[in-house]
Specification:
- By secondary structure, the chain is α/β, with parallel strands linked by helices.
- Helix content is 32%, strand content 20%.
- It contains 23 helices and 34 strands.
- The strands form eight sheets. Strands 27-26-28-29-34-33-32-30-31 form a nine-stranded mixed sheet, with helices on both faces. The protein has a six-stranded mixed sheet with strand order 1-2-4-3-5-10.
- The longest helix is centred in the first third of the chain and has 21 residues.
- The radius of gyration is 29 Å and the shape is globular.
């Protein structure tokens, strides 16, 4: 009796408190939808709710952004569930391995992954307020996790820009400045990365911190809230084809069910929407697909608006789309999602359990061998996903990635084994399968990403479970000797590149070999690094520097007491050159791709750890290029003629130009560059041309496209751009464009094949690929031009391409 009285009193007190909690509008001091909230205001509101309702809301800070803004989530449920939150989490995670059936459904709502798709964060505040005040019944069997802003840096960049340029009152004319963001929009994070393409690759600070928390919870439902063009109606599930084959029938069916529930509310309001179009479920690094491959019902919701919409904008049909409208739509689907989770909790939980018990795959194990640095880099990615792995020294047979046929991985070296006999089996299949099955070639993103190719490793996919009992490979620690004439180390990974830049920044003079050589009984390939005592007499602490950097970068140093090699060129030869401390600049702004510029920027600061000067298009004509040794032109649709003329003069005087991807289209039309774009020969046509149906226009268009396909390329290992590589490289092609071989300097090229190893390539685009350039160089006056037809820094995940970029900086003279 006393307990009942206490509970009734507590419940009444809780209801009074809940009714007195401020709405977002009351807390912010303006009506929601009449202004954009800055990130700190959103954080303050969430923390305010948690302080007012500690029984049902718990805030967890899970990190900070590059610019220091807080990342947080809010857990929301009943007082009983919140008191047992950690037990609920543990019981749920146990279901992935032990098959037990927990009692609570977990819903994770992610907002504002693209910073200028800013409505979703506003909607999140209204949604959580409604849940904790009027929809508490849904929480009896459900825990809701709100992440109000995945990309705070991008959001604040947009909000600050918009507040600086909006009219007062706002102007709905789409031509007004407030509807046209500048070059660096709020979409991306600090390094201009698209965080919605980074879930699987985990290259960004925000992604790494979020994924740690996500894998501690593995929700049953995950929603990623987005915006699209201003004239598009709302999009929600079910998704379009292609859907990956590991997606279960339940995951497909529930998308339909949840879509119908959304439609019910949208129909009542007369709001327009569409489903089953555009947004597919294939590429594994989205906020819908990555959760799906981890057992969730993963969904994208897309509201019309984005950075162009502002507080209000006139759309094509003459109506005005306001921020209030956009909030209402995301608010509605958010609540509908929680409602469906609560109403179907038992089924969600049971099907999640089935997902983790399904391990019936053709390939049971993926076995990889190769450079230990690259293997280590791959295991770091596996650790981020909580994918289990082991090692074996035995031979393994199966589908050989290099040949595309049955083969074996031989030798006694320790080999990495990733099997599907583990909870993350579905994700393993998706990330490692040699070829992804396409149910439709019209897809939203790249169609190939298999990690053995991306990391440059030998691999077989075995139909048997391969035992993994061997120890992980270990590197030999550097032995520093006062009697050494020189220290020698190999050159074939990004660990080696970071070791080099660490040495350069410490003032250590480093040489590299242009020919293979043997010394102290060991063989070394072209590009190997040589640090001599004679070059570094100015450093009293050379041994300490070498020891610290070798340990930090897992480098083995071979000590030699002589510069007289057993074979090859001696250390004093003109074939053993000094590596220069080059000063590097990159063009930004104008027509330069923000994404590719961001890839370059992030590469230098967060991967290579080497200084980069950013030169903006606005003042480029006033820059003295003679101050720089290297100029990088990230992907651009159009390099201005005046800029190109200035750049050519600088190259002829000894500069080194690195041009990436689409930028080559600005160079191949200039006769001073040796580039020539390949074109399909005109096919013979009937005297009467047959018209194509209008409805097939999209299918015709993709004949000219390559949507992220993997091609096998040949490598000239004698070329400085290719130091550290074997004679084969797997390139990720992102465009149907192709260029003929250069007269000289073809470092990497496709020979006589037009077929990709994996991924989609249109029929017309394929015809262009045979005998085409991938990476090459040519001389111009006293300088050098480096052509990177395929972008080796794409989304920072194609690990095996990055050393080409480093070679372009330091190995090319």
């Amino acid at each position: 009796m006393k307990f009942r009285l206490f509970f009734a009193t507590f419940f009444m007190a809780f209801c009074v408190v809940a009714q007195s909690v401020k709405s977002p509008s009351e807390f912010l001091g303006h009506e929601l939808g009449t202004n954009f909230s800055r990130h700190h205001q959103v954080v303050d509101y969430y923390k305010y709710l948690a302080s007012e309702l500690p029984e049902i809301i718990k805030i967890k800070s899970y990190g900070t952004t590059n610019e220091g803004r807080e990342l947080l989530v809010a857990f929301v449920s009943t007082p009983k569930n919140m008191n047992n939150l950690e037990s609920i989490r543990k019981e749920h995670i146990r279901s992935t391995t032990e098959g037990n059936i927990p009692e609570k459904a977990l819903v994770w709502l992610s907002y504002n992954v693209h910073g200028n798709e800013s409505v979703s964060t506003e909607a999140s505040m209204q949604t959580i307020y409604e849940v904790v005040t009027n929809k508490k019944d849904w929480l009896e069997n459900t825990v809701v996790i709100f992440d109000p802003c995945i990309n705070p840096d991008g959001r604040d960049r947009y909000v600050n820009w918009y507040n600086s340029f909006k009219n007062t009152p706002y102007n709905v004319d789409v031509n007004s400045k407030e509807h046209h963001e500048t070059w660096l929009s709020g979409r991306s994070n600090h390094y201009m990365f698209d965080l919605n393409r980074d879930w699987a690759w985990v290259t960004q600070k925000e992604s790494k911190q979020r994924l740690t928390l996500y894998n501690e919870w593995l929700p049953h439902i995950h929603v990623d809230f987005h915006e699209q063009g201003i004239n598009n109606p709302y999009y929600f599930a079910p998704a379009a084809e292609p859907m990956h084959e590991v997606i279960t029938q339940w995951q497909r069916d529930f998308q339909v069910s949840i879509g119908k529930n959304h439609a019910k509310y949208f129909d009542e309001k007369g709001w327009f929407y569409f489903t089953k179009e555009v947004f597919d479920l294939l590429y594994p690094s989205y906020g819908d697909t990555y959760p799906i491959y981890n057992g969730a019902i993963g969904m994208t919701y897309e509201q019309g608006g984005s950075g162009r919409a502002g507080l209000g904008v006139k759309i094509a049909n003459g109506d005005t789309l306001t921020l209030k409208d956009r909030i209402a739509h995301h608010y509605t689907t958010g609540l509908s999602t929680i409602e469906m989770a609560s109403n179907n909790a038992s089924k969600l939980i049971a099907e999640f359990d089935k997902f983790y018990n399904n391990k019936d795959f053709k390939y049971k194990s993926y076995v990889l061998s190769g450079n230990t640095d690259k293997l280590h880099a791959l295991t770091e990615l596996l650790d981020a996903h909580k994918i289990s792995y082991g090692y074996t020294s035995y031979n393994a047979r199966g589908y050989e990635y290099d040949s595309g046929k049955s083969g074996s991985l031989d030798g006694n070296d320790s080999k990495l084994v990733i099997s599907t006999d583990q909870p993350k089996a579905n994700l393993v299949k998706v990330l490692f399968e040699p070829k992804t099955k396409l149910s439709d070639s019209l897809t939203y993103d790249i169609t190939a990403w298999s990690l053995p190719y991306a990391y440059g490793l030998n691999a077989v996919a075995s139909e048997n479970l391969v035992s993994a009992n061997a120890e992980a490979p270990v590197y030999s620690k550097a032995v520093i000797s006062n009697d050494a004439y020189a220290y020698v180390t190999d050159w074939n990974s990004m660990d080696d590149a970071r070791f080099l830049t660490g040495l350069i920044k410490k003032g250590v003079r480093v040489r590299y070999a242009q020919e293979n050589f043997e010394v102290s009984g060991k063989s070394f390939d072209r590009g190997s690094l040589i640090i001599t005592k004679g070059d570094n007499t100015h450093l009293k602490n050379l041994n300490s520097i070498l020891n610290n950097l070798a340990t930090a970068h897992r480098k083995t140093l071979t000590t030699t007491s002589t510069g007289f090699v057993d074979s090859g060129k001696d250390f004093g030869s003109s074939s053993v050159n000094m590596i220069s401390d080059v000063k590097v600049a990159a063009l930004s702004g104008g027509s330069v791709s923000t994404l590719n510029f961001g890839e370059v920027w992030h590469f230098f600061e967060q991967q290579l750890h080497y200084p980069l000067t950013v030169l903006d298009d606005d003042y480029f004509d006033r820059v003295d290029l003679s101050e720089y040794d290297v100029l990088i032109l990230p992907e651009s649709n159009n390099i201005k003629k005046e800029q190109l003329s200035k750049i050519k003069t600088w190259v002829r005087s000894g500069g080194k130009l690195i041009a990436i991807g689409r930028t080559l289209s600005s160079l191949d039309s200039d006769e001073d560059f040796g580039l020539s774009k390949q074109e399909n020969e005109g096919e013979k046509q009937d005297s009467i041309q047959k018209p194509e149906p209008y409805a097939s226009s999209s299918r015709e268009y993709i004949k000219n496209m390559i949507t992220g396909a993997i091609y096998k390329a040949k490598v000239d290992v004698t070329h400085p751009l290719a130091y550290g590589y074997q004679d084969t490289y797997y390139t990720l092609k992102l465009s149907g464009n192709a260029y003929s071989y250069l007269k000289n300097g073809n470092a990497v090229y496709i020979a006589d094949t037009s077929e990709p190893l994996a991924g989609f390539a249109g029929s017309n685009a394929k015809k262009l690929q045979a005998n085409s350039l991938i990476f090459g160089t040519e001389s111009m006056g006293s300088g050098t031009v480096v052509y990177l037809v395929d972008n080796p820094l794409f989304r920072a995940f194609w690990e095996n391409g990055k050393l080409f970029f480093v070679n372009a900086l330091f190995m090319m003279e």
